[in-house]
Structure formats: structure tokens, C-alpha cells
């Protein structure tokens, strides 16, 4: 055979030398795996009932759908084109009025509010805008799992502080309120390296609604250490049993250091529209605008127009029984209670959530169906969830997903179920659980 030309040899050697270096940027190291890809796929393939990923299977309110239809089919051609990069003017105006009322301060729609591609992008903007090499960001565990990779991608180091479970009184169901922050432990995580803390109340996955004392403890530490607070409040309207959602930005000294994040996905049950927002002081939001301007630039105009109309309606009905923000938690509380009953009846011990549309349950009683495997690195709950969707057709998310690697194995006997589902879906889940229970108890 002919020997390769010297040119080809040199080219091939330099190509190989280049390829010896990873092609991807170093900031992606260790964050390439994502359980959602796997669990969403498993649910699509095997589930008969999907209580996994957090989205409702019932429609959004008619007034919101109608507003979208009007936006895309009406006379106004502008709604098909770019709008203002940092938020469609009607939307930022009504968000400023609405959140101004809730926070008890005048908000400037142009500088105190920014519209984002869902709450995800608001979070991403926060980490990109404020966190750099050497900075630490405190994350309360369990946490919405994207916080950790987003901190790392920005070059920061996540520092985890756990919510700790107090044993409930005998005979009472566990509650998300049984999970609390130890003030001394929280204080021990703050240092001169602390850039920010991420707060998520109501919390995904537990459904914990942080109380005033806990928020005040967080606020005092933020003020003392000059730390920022990224407050993810996407489940702000989903609180039950008469509880109140408190906004950390309204506590003394917190407005100037807090970015409050919200989502129409959760507020109006339109997760696919991906309209979210960040609210905060101009000295913080101006940096979010820089990230937004130089990344996505802009969010879909028609969806923003429809969400603006939805908020206009809610502003007019604020505090009245017809308000969607009042109706939705009433409906969801019934769904929560229905799932609590189904799980309790079969021996999965629910942690009754005070908020969100998630419910975490202890699966220890079902361990005989999926024995522990000491040779496997995979957390037990993850193997259990996969077995359950494949063998029972019921999809849920392992709780270990919401812990950092070092702490996954100590919380691996719980699953997270989403109850934002039609009555029929919850009944079908109940049927699966009942049949499973019968199978287990038959000799
Ligand atoms: N924060 C939390 C706590 C969430 O649960 C979610 C969605 N699951 C988001 C943010 C992202 O919201 P969006 O869909 O608006 O991007």
C-alpha cells in the first residue's frame, strides 16, 4: 500500500493532539448527567399514570387561553414580532403593579421587573450575573436540582445546608413542617466567601412553606454577611390549610439584596409557555438584563401578552373568591388530600405538604419488592422508581434527585409524586396502588 503523504501525516498528528483535549468547556465537567432526561423518557415509555415531572394534566383557565388566542389571531400584527427585550411593556407594567402591592413598595416596571424564559432563565441570569470563581452559594437541601449545576457552571461552589426531619408525634402523619433549618448550622455555612443563598419557598420537592422565624434567620445572616438572596417563589400561590406565603424581599434589609423569581407556568398552569420573571432593585436587575440581553434576548411576545392579561384580571379580582390565585390552591388542596389518602391506605407514608403540588412519601414498607443491592452505586429510590414505572406503570421521581451526591444515599427511601392531576388520573394511581397492595398481601 502507498505510504501516507507527509502532509496527511502532519495533519492527522495535530488533529489527534487537539482531540486529546476534551472538546467541551471545562465548566461542563461533572454536570453532564441529568436525571430528568432518563425519567421523562421512562415515563413516556412505560407509565400508565405519570405523577413524575411537575406539570398539570388539566387545562389552564379559559380567560388565559382566550387571551393567547386573541393575541395570535387578533388585528395586532406587532404581537407576532419582537417586543421590548426585558419584558413586553403591558406585562412588566402589570407585574410591577401586582408585586408592588404584595411587597408594599412602588415598583418601576422598566427597572424593577424583567421577563425571562421561565423561572429557569431567571435563575440562570442570577448565577451568571453575580457568581464567579471562589464564590460560595448556599443551597438548602433538598433543592430543585438545577441550582447546583447552575452554580458550578458560573464557577461558584455550592455549600449545602440540610432541612432536618424532626420525628412527628406518634399517630400523626409526617408534614413538610417537620423539616426545619437548624439556625446554628445555617449560620455556620456563611463566611466571607458567601455570595448568595438560594431560598425556595414553598419548596420543591417537600412542599415546605418557610415560616417567619426561619426567613428572618436567613435575612439576618444575609445582611450580616452582605450576601444576596435568590428567592425562587414559583409556587407562591400554592399554599394550603390557611397558611401564608411570606416574601423574603419584604423583610427589613432584604429588598436591596433579593431577586424574587416567579413563573406563569406554576401560577396559571401553563408550564409550556415558559414565561417567568425576576423582581428586584435596579442595582441587581441591571446585571440580569446584561445576561439576558446577551443570551436569549427576548421571550415570546404573544405568550407575554396573554400572561399580562391574566395578571390584569387577577389584579382586579385580588383577594376575591373568583380570583384564580384563590381558586387554584383550593382545588389543589383537595387533590393533595386525595393522594395522601391513597398512599396512606397502601402503607406509603406521605409527608403532607404545606405548599406546591408535590408530595413526598416514604416507600420503606415496599422494600421487599425491590431489594437493596449493595453492589449498585445507584440510590435505592432511583432503582425503586424505575422498577415501579416498568412493573406497575406508575411514574414518580426519586427524592435523592434533590440532594447533592454526598447526601443522596441518606435520603433514598422516598419518592416525590406530583398531584396537579385530573381526578381521573389520581383515581387511576389509586387503583394501581390498591392492586399492588392486594398482590403483596395475597399468599
Ligand atoms: N423553580 C422551581 C422550584 C421549580 O420547581 C421549577 C419547575 N419545576 C422552576 C423553578 C422552573 O420554572 P419554569 O418552568 O418557569 O422555568
Automatic annotation (TrEMBL):
Names of the cofactor(s): pyridoxal 5'-phosphate
Catalysed reaction equations from the record: L-kynurenine + 2-oxoglutarate = kynurenate + L-glutamate + H2O; an S-substituted L-cysteine + H2O = a thiol + pyruvate + NH4(+)
Keyword terms: Aminotransferase, Lyase, Pyridoxal phosphate, Transferase
Pathways per UniProt: Amino-acid degradation; L-kynurenine degradation; kynurenate from L-kynurenine: step 1/2
GO biological process per UniProt: kynurenine metabolic process
Occurrences of domain Aminotransferase class I/classII large (ranges): 48-427
A single MF term (Gene Ontology): pyridoxal phosphate binding
InterPro entries recorded: Aminotransferase_I/II_large (IPR004839), Kynurenine-oxoglutarate_AT (IPR051326), PyrdxlP-dep_Trfase (IPR015424), PyrdxlP-dep_Trfase_major (IPR015421), PyrdxlP-dep_Trfase_small (IPR015422)
Coiled coil: none
PANTHER family registered for this protein in UniProt: FI04487P, KYNURENINE--OXOGLUTARATE TRANSAMINASE 1
Similarity annotation: Belongs to the class-I pyridoxal-phosphate-dependent aminotransferase family.
Protein name in the entry: KAT1 transaminase
Gene encoding the protein: Kyat1
